[in-house]
Amino acid sequence: MKSVTEQNFVVLLQEHQNIVHKICRIYTNDSDAHKDLFQEITIQLWKAFPKFRGDSKFSTWMYRVGLNTAITLYRKSLRHVQSQRIESMEYKLSYEEYDDTKDEQLKLIYGAVRKLNDIDKGIVFLYLENKNYKEISETLGISEVNARVRMNRIKTKLKTQLNS
Amino acid sequence: MDELELLKKDWDKSSTNYPNLNNEQLYKLINKKSSSIVKWIFIISLLEFSAWTLISFLFDGAESLEKMKSYNVEHIFYPLTIFGYLVLFVFFYLFYKNYKSISATDNTKMLMEQILKTRKTVKHYVIYNLLFVYISIVLAVYIELTNNPETQSMLTSIESEGANNIYILYLTIIGFILLAMAVVTVILLGIYFLIYGLLLKRLKSNYKDLKALEKAI
């Protein structure tokens, strides 16, 4: 029985894996960390899959579990806890902003976003993913008002950081 | 232009640049748990080894060594001890090797083989430990019978009372040995089931999942 569940899960994950990659892109600084986080989120999604009831879209559920994993892990990494790396998992990762060839201003913006705290990063990410405040608040488990207030602060923060 | 708007433009533009892992790669990601289970088997075997060594030192290590010296049976006692430790080290090495090769395995079939191999190693380890304890019990009783002056005099006195008595005594001793073996077996298997059995069970379920994957692809 389990293998059927697993097959369903992998098919869905394969289809929506972009979401996980995008979360990794916001929360990590280099491709190694990206792969670590990708693995961690995948495993957490798989663990949480039995609780996925299908009352929301799979992608919506992925946003929630993925972001929560990234946020928890981000807190962990502040305590210097590292997840175990899969060395055999080789795939190519080449984001321009991970190297130095990118347009200078964009690089600065990405850098400034990565300096935000874990929740704010999630807000920026969901904003970039075209989510409205209602969806943002539901995904992150904060109130809609809080999401709006935070978004305004983020905009100010980014401005001051980039202009200093 | 707003910084976030600039970012969004780039974000949308690069949304097709992400790597696309195929089903098999994703399967492997969620089945990589095997590697950490095998790592635990290795760590637990080390802990177990330290625990046994500590126990033997804390309790009757020195005392039984003195007793063995007085019996003049060091020629049995020392080789047996050294042999025991050597074999344990071989098992650590095997556990370590299993862990290393499982974490480096890329291909599903190899991973399955490694899981089977690990399960086998653990089984051999448990069987070896049981055999070692059995041999130790038999040897200890044998040494006690042939070298302890008190038992010797007791044996001669019983023998002088009648030939039947001595057979009964030996039967009792054999019964005692079997009982001791049974008790040790139950205790050891119980402990091993608790520590290794549960880990092996999880390995097995990973193995099943991998096998299903083999079929599916």
General description of the model:
The complex is a heterodimer of chains A (164) and B (217). Chain A is mainly α. Chain A has two domains: 1-93, Orthogonal Bundle (Rna Polymerase Sigma Factor, Chain: A); 99-164, Arc Repressor Mutant, subunit A (Orthogonal Bundle). Helices cover 70% and strands 0% of the residues of chain A. Chain A has helices spanning 2-27, 31-48, 58-78, 104-114, 118-128, 133-140, 144-163. Chain B is mainly alpha-helical. Chain B has one domain (32-216). Chain B contains eight helices and no strands. In chain B, helix 5 runs antiparallel to helix 6 (108-147). The longest helix of chain B has 54 residues, at 163-216. Chain B starts with a helix and ends with a helix. Chains A and B meet through helix 1, helix 2, helix 4, helix 5 and helix 7 of A and helix 1, helix 2, helix 3 and helix 8 of B.
**Tally of domains of chain B:** 1
Beta strand count of chain B: 0
Global geometry of chain B: elongated
Mean pLDDT figure of chain B = 77
Secondary-structure content class of chain A? mainly alpha
The CATH architecture assignment of the largest domain in chain A turns out to be: Orthogonal Bundle
What is the subunit arrangement here? heterodimer
| Relative strand content of chain A | under 5%
The share of residues in extended strands of chain B comes to under 5%
At the first level of CATH, what is the class of the largest domain in chain A? Mainly Alpha
What is the count of helical runs of chain A?
Answer: 7
Helical fraction of chain A equals: over 70%
Low-confidence stretches of chain B: none
Structural class of chain B: mainly alpha
Q: Report, as a whole number of angstroms, the end-to-end distance of chain A.
A: 58 Å
Q: From the alpha-carbon coordinates, what is the Rg of chain B to the nearest angstrom?
A: 28 Å
Number of helices of chain B: 8
Tell the overall outline of chain A. Answer: globular
CATH level 4 superfamily of the largest domain in chain A: RNA polymerase sigma factor, region 2, helix turn helix motif
Q: What value does the Rg of chain A take, in angstroms?
A: 17 Å
